[in-house]
Each structure stands twice: as C-alpha cells, then as structure tokens.
Fold this protein.
Amino acid sequence: MEGALQYVEDNDMSIRGASRKWGVPAATLPKWLSCLTTMPKKGPPTILTYQEEEEIVQWCQEMAGCGHGLEIINLKAVTAEGLDKDQALCLRLAIVSTFYETLSKAYAANPYGPARIWNCAETRVMADRNEAMRVPARKGSWNVSYILSKSHEWITIVCCVNASRQSIPGFYMIKGKRLLHNYIAECEPGACMAVQQHAWMTKELFMNWLHHFKRSVLGGVSPTNRCLFIFDDHDSHVALPTIQEARMLGIDLLTLPAHTSHKLQPLNVSVFSPFKTSNRKETHG
C-alpha cells in the first residue's frame, strides 16, 4: 500500500496502474490519498477525516508530554438539542442583547426587588395517561401494555414565579364550553380555572389572569408598588386592552424575543420538564 501511494503521489504512475502493480483495489487508493479513512470499513462515513483524527491524537500526546494530559471525563457524547429555523435565527446575539438592554432600562426606571420580578409561561398537559413509561415486567418481555382512558383532554396551566422563589397559584384552562364541576378541588389553595373550547389562552382569559395575579401577589400590586412581568409575545398577551389594563394595575410588561423562550424563560428551561415527568408518574400510579 505504501509503495502504491508513493508512486501515485510522485505522479510516476496512475491510480489504475498502481492498483495493478501493487495488487491494491483501485477504489481504495483515492480514499487513502484524500485521508478520508485509514482503512476500508463498514458503516456510515466518519465525521472527522483521517488527517483530523491524527492531529487530535498528536495534540493529546503533546499535552500529556507537557504534564497537561486531558482527562477522559472532560469529554462525553451528548444528544444535541433540535432547533427549528426560527429558533436558531431568533436566538442571535443582537436580538438577545436588545432584550437585555430593554430589561436594564426597566430596572433603571423602577428598581424592582427580587420579589417584584415575575416570569410567566404556559404549558399543556393531558388530563389522563398519554405517554408510555418504563414499568417493571418479566425479564424477556417485549409486548407490555396498559389501559388508557377513552378521552384525551388537554389542560393548559399558566405558571408564574419570581426571583425570590415565590409562585402564584396556578391558572388552569380546561377544554370545554361550560363548567360541569370543580376540576381543581384538590389543587393548591388559591388556584383558578376557566373553560375554553380548545384549552387555549385568549385575550379575555389573559385579562382574567392579570386580575388573578394581582390578587395573589404578596404585598399587593399598585401603580406605586409596581411589578415587572416577563413573558412571551403571544397575541393574547400583547393586545392593547391588556397592556392598558396592566399599566392601570401597576404591572410593567416585558416580552421575550420571539422563539427564544426555550432558552430565556426559566420555567421552560428548568421547571416544566420535571413537572411533566412527575405528572406522568402520578397518572400512571
């Protein structure tokens, strides 16, 4: 192989001629010449070329020789988070920086304390069992099932937390046209509920939520004791009547840039996922 490569690299012989002379497959020589692989192998193509792998190996060896060897624990394989195009485009430095500049101006105009800065977000859960879970079963079992309810009703929950680790009782939106009974009898004290055809947030329901927020905040909310309210820019949140009502109540509204709540909204980042995991365990219990 080395002789065939040398002849081809020195332009003394064609790939086909070197293949016949040295008994090397003609399809193999170009791969070696382009440093794509060290040897023919099955499976999908590698991400790094042979030359890149050699450079990494050489760098690791040099670091080890200098007394700065790399620990294997510093590297791991992770599952990359999928971002759609809108999320990727909107999560740019310029857009995020503009949001924080606006936030700084809001602080300067009204120095809110930690208990006066609130983050609000919505999440949807199914009222019954909706996802498969790992359950104990006989070793070697493959077909394990469980019984589902005939109805699959979605519930939207509006959650609100502040920088002092306080929270507002939940606001539950039930799918339907009228209230049949108290669905939240066993929920936290102070919780509220409403019905909507699709269990979606609307302008009218968000107005009701603002008054629920005002009633629930410790210390009250007023034009002289204002709160900063950070949430996404859904249409139901930024209607003109909503903005006017919020100002009158003493609530300053600040919206996150579009398609960035998966990174900038604390509830989306660290609360909703464990909540839904716990909810699934309860519904399967």
